[in-house]
Amino acid sequence: MNQDSEREKIDALAKKIHQAEAKPEPQSGGSSPAQGNRLAAEFIGAILGSVFLGWGMDRFFSTAPWCLLGMLIVGFAVGMWNMWRATQGTGPEDESGK
Description:
Structural class: mainly alpha
Low-confidence stretches: none
Radius of gyration: 24 Å
Mean pLDDT: 84
Strand content: under 5%
Number of strands: 0
Helix content: over 70%
Distance between the termini: 52 Å
């Protein structure tokens, strides 16, 4: 009788697991603070990454500070573009479903 009780518990747990796996993920992308933090990180990352690349180009080509300034502008534009795509719902994760 003890084995039947354990088997029922296992079956109930398996049923709950299958139900949880079948639930669709929320499409909103999470809470507002989480989305804001993600956008800020993407924006800052685009700027810092491009500035670092511009600094490296300046050191390689001996053109300081022109590559750094140019890449700063490019990084700002890319950061703004990423934020625009994320807020409009046209990010890469949305395009994969089409």
